[in-house]
């Protein structure tokens, strides 16, 4: 936002400078040319008056002296022509060439009765003025003075450079003001962004005390709302944790009472007792998942270095009997030196939940593949892929939400397994996603872990 505001302000300032300086420079350019022409006309008229006096008094030899002195003083060339176009004096190096000063168009125009002629008849890079000697109906002659335009051009160029320097100075000053103004405007927005990032669990920064009043009021209102939301989230986590913890003991007592009833239950009621025990186990699993989810969502947890091949081998060994009983194979594949950083116990819980889901979905005769490999961002990817029916794109997006279950899912699940996987992965600095399995059928659950550092080995587990 600051960059966009800065670009906007500087663009506006640049447009104003161009709109002001270009016309100003052009006016100065035209004025300098007009001033130089007027000064040259004045000098030419003064010289013509002296030449007229010399010709009137019969001192024609002074004409050449006057022309040479004027040429030296003005830094140009002077031509003096008589009434019939005869050259009386000239400092021009080509004065005797055919079509010399006497035949020049401006000189002929003056001899024909024009007051003066100003232009570039002497060639490019020069300005010339032709004036009559003794103005009247029949002029006694003409004087043409030609000077280079370099001094005027240099003065105009210096003025353009001055305008450019002034424009750059104004732009720099505008940039400083624009930076301060843009930061002043965007500071409350940046504070809102930081507060939004900390909303899930971190402490909120104080509301901004600088910036536009409207944005400050918005930031203060957001800060109050965010505080209430954080309080509600914390209360919800605390309730889930406390309620789940309080339910553990009654559920354990209920299961014990049901088991004690087993000798007294008739053969006809045995099926109902087994169903009650299974439902009690499902409720106990739900309570354990809620507790694990509440612990994972409660703030930042420490991380440890875990050897991924050893963790996978241990969990595959635990789940292998269940997989064999369902006719499903378990395959583990990956480099032997892969280490990841995760919160304590997270890798085992993630593998247990992913393997439970995969074995529940995999058909008999298929295989569940557990693989790991380096990720594109320097992390480590853990894949658990099955050959089950898979999920649609919309279902894959919702499957990581708490308590969501796929339509037609087998009974016994809680809908918390994948949500717990994502929460544990994110608590360790990673993430979780669901993709179609390679080959087009089934589901590939992908969990990313930060690569484990060389130090801080996982306690109790060889890396």
TrEMBL record:
GO terms for cellular component: plasma membrane. InterPro entries: HAMP_dom, HATPase_C_sf, HATPase_dom, His_kinase_dom, HisK_dim/P_dom, HisK_dim/P_sf, Sig_transdc_His_kin-like_C, TCS_sensor_his_kinase. Its EC number is 2.7.13.3. It is found in: Cell membrane. Keywords: Kinase, Membrane, Phosphoprotein, Transferase, Transmembrane, Transmembrane helix, Two-component regulatory system. The chain crosses the membrane at residues 6-28, 159-185. The keyword rRNA processing does not apply. CDD domains: HisKA (cd00082). Residues 183-234 form the HAMP domain. This is histidine kinase. It comes from Spirilliplanes yamanashiensis.
């Amino acid at each position: 936002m600051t960059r966009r505001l800065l670009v906007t302000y500087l663009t506006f300032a640049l447009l104003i400078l161009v709109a002001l300086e270009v016309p100003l420079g052009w006016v100065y350019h035209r004025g300098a040319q007009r001033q130089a022409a007027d000064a040259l006309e004045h000098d030419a008229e003064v010289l013509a008056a002296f030449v007229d006096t010399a010709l009137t008094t019969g001192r024609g030899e002074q004409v050449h002296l006057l022309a040479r002195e004027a040429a030296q003083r003005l830094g140009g060339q002077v031509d003096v022509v008589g009434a019939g176009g005869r050259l009386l004096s000239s400092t021009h190096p080509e004065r005797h060439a055919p079509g010399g000063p006497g035949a020049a168009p401006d000189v002929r125009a003056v001899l024909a009765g024009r007051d003066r002629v100003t232009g570039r008849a002497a060639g490019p890079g020069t300005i010339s003025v032709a004036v009559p000697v003794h103005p009247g109906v029949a002029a006694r002659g003409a004087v043409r003075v030609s000077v280079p335009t370099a001094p005027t051009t240099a003065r105009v160029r210096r003025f353009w450079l001055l305008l450019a320097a002034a424009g750059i100075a104004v732009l720099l000053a505008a940039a400083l003001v624009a930076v301060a103004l843009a930061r002043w405007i965007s500071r409350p927005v940046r504070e809102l962004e930081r507060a939004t990032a900390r909303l899930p669990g971190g402490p909120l920064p104080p509301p901004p005390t600088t910036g536009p009043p409207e944005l400050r009021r918005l930031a203060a209102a957001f800060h109050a709302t965010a505080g209430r939301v954080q309080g509600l989230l914390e209360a919800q986590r605390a309730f889930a944790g406390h309620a789940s913890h309080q339910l553990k003991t009654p559920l354990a007592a209920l299961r014990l009472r049901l088991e004690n009833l087993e000798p007294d239950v008739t053969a006809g009621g045995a099926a109902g007792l087994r169903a009650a025990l299974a439902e009690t186990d499902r409720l106990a699993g739900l309570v354990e998942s809620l507790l694990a989810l509440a612990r994972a969502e409660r703030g930042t947890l420490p991380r440890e270095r875990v050897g991924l091949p050893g963790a996978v081998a241990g969990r595959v060994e635990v789940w292998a009997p269940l997989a064999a009983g369902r006719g499903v194979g378990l395959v583990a594949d990956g480099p032997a030196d892969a280490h990841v950083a995760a919160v304590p116990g997270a890798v085992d819980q993630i593998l247990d939940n992913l393997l439970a889901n995969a074995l529940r979905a995999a058909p008999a005769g298929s295989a569940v593949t557990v693989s790991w490999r380096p990720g594109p961002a320097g992390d480590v990817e853990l894949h658990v892929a099955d050959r089950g029916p898979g999920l649609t794109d919309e279902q894959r997006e919702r499957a990581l939400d708490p308590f969501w279950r796929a339509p037609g899912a087998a009974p016994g699940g809680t809908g918390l397994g994948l949500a717990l996987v994502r929460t544990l992965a994110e608590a360790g600095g990673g993430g979780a996603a669901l993709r179609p399995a390679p080959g087009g059928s089934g589901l590939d659950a992908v969990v990313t872990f930060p690569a484990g550092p060389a130090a801080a080995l996982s306690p109790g587990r060889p890396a």
